[in-house]
Predict the structure.
Amino acid sequence: MQVFLHFITYAIVAGCERAEICATKNCKVMYKIILLLALAAGPLTGFDQAEKFLKNVKSKTTAKVNNRIDRKVDKAIDKTLDEIEGQGKEMVETQDAVKDTSKEKSPVAATGVRSYSKYDFVAGEKVVYYTDFSSDPIGELPVGWNTNGTGEVVTLDGMKGKWVQLYQNATYLTDNKDTLSENFTVEFDLVLRRTNPKAAFPVMAFGILASGTYSTTANELLKGYAANFATELNIQPFGNNDSQIHLYTYENNKRYLSTDLKKYGALQNYFNAIIHVAMQVQKERLRIWFNETKLYDLPKAIVPGTSINQLYFLVRRYGGDEAEVGYTIGNIWLAKGLPDTRNKLLKEGKFSTTGILFERGSAVIQPQSSGILKEIAGLLQSEADLKVKIIGHTDSDDSEVVNLDLSKRRAEAVKHALRTEFGIDASRIDTDGRGEAEPVGDNKTKEGRAQNRRVEFIKQ
């Protein structure tokens, strides 16, 4: 039996080295098959008999694997040909052609709007800073940013767009130069990236600051960001529901506010997934959300009269290997003001928002739009005679024909959400789209394009 097991090991290793079975997973499968067959075959005597048995098993196993692979490839080819010939269940959407909306699924069916039912974040009225890093080269720090360490634009497997990877023992300042008002919002996407479950995360922090007499990207702020004013959330991800968060506010390098250390075990559920981070400042009040969860609502977190003008990130040292664990960020929005939905719609007759977000080139509403949808629905519910026309608008990144169609489908998607998620009678809502025809911002800038991707509500 020992001789036979030696031959099993030799056959598997030799087969893998010669790549006759094409993947590690298949080698493991082959090993199990050979072992089971060996047990079933009973005792074998002699090298010649054992070798002949192994060759026979290996040949049949390889043939079985190849036959299964062939069947899967044939199935994939048939599916692709069906889609090309228009026989698939859905047409594939591209940004170069108008989608056949007659076969489109419900425009909000795949979103998490309902799961964000308690989400009350509403984005600021005017976008003053936006970046998705789409124009930044891979492997470089975003143009205009400053750091005392290193960072680079990257892509992530299974996730759309470009991201910035942050490295340990470094602070990062964006290239924003605009002073924010006393009421503003901050949004960005965060990924807690980990490929080795045993690798420990370093502590990461993000926050807002007032640069005082310095420019928003001054070197002095990289270590002395709390010299004037700063408020930051520190996060320490752990497994076993032990993750922790802790918020600090500084004034003139001294603690102005410090919260108790808070356990946030749910954070481990977001490893290698996108967390949408939202911050809302209303004078002294600060609120922070991770996805639909409100982490903080602090009425006295901001020093009165502070002129905040920068978003910063930092990663402390003492984490695992950078290739195995770390943080990436993307899709950053800074917006001034708080939308006055009721006053603008009832008294001025129209209200426009960039807070209803859609998947890129699509009419699928993103779940973080729930707050503004809920606010609009509440107004319609309280004003039973109010009727509105929803008009979609886009930037100029695609053709006029594609943008016009997209804007109309997005307006329809908003109507669908108000009807199905909030019970608003469809007869009270008309829809239309203007595409790129009525810009309110400069389509040559990222902020202008973000401002143009909006949804308008007009009183009927």
